[in-house]
């Protein structure tokens, strides 16, 4: 598995895409991380875990970086 950074697959329209990267700071280790030592749960499991931790007041802060990618056309 590899990561090539944010870029849409070739041939996919629109040629311009927006990406949002969000980081969260919690005051405890999330259960999906503690059980596995690393994150291996699916996106929906992670989403519900984050929502639950925020609801239980364990979310200290979050920050989002929004970036844009536009494929050059000739």
Task: Summarize the structure in words.
The protein has helices at residues 31-34, 43-55; strands spanning 16-26, 59-70. It is of the alpha+beta class and 74 residues long. The longest helix is centred in the middle third of the chain and has 13 residues, at 43-55. It has a domain at 21-70. The chain has a two-stranded antiparallel ribbon with strand order 1-2.
Briefly characterize the structure.
This protein has two helices and two strands.
The main pleated sheet reads as:
2 strands, antiparallel
User: How many strands?
Assistant: 2
The number of helical runs is: 2
Q: Largest sheet, order of strands side by side?
A: 1-2
Q: What is the helix content?
A: 10-25%
Determine Rg (CA atoms, Å): 16 Å
- General shape: elongated
pLDDT < 50 stretches: none
Structural class per helix/strand content? Answer: alpha+beta
- Strand % is 25-35%
The SSE order reads: EHHE
Mean pLDDT: 77
* Amino-to-carboxy terminus distance: 31 Å
Brief descriptors of the model:
2 strands, 74 residues, alpha+beta, single chain
Helix and strand layout, with pairings?
Layout: E1 16-26, H1 31-34, H2 43-55, E2 59-70
Antiparallel strand pairs: 1-2
């Amino acid at each position: 598995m590899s990561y090539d950074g944010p870029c849409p697959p070739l041939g996919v329209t629109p040629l311009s895409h927006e990406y949002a990267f969000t980081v969260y700071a919690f005051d405890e280790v999330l259960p999906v991380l503690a059980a596995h030592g690393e994150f291996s749960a699916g996106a929906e499991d992670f989403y519900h875990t984050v929502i639950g931790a925020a609801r239980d007041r364990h979310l200290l802060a979050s920050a989002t970086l929004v970036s844009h990618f536009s494929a050059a056309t000739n």
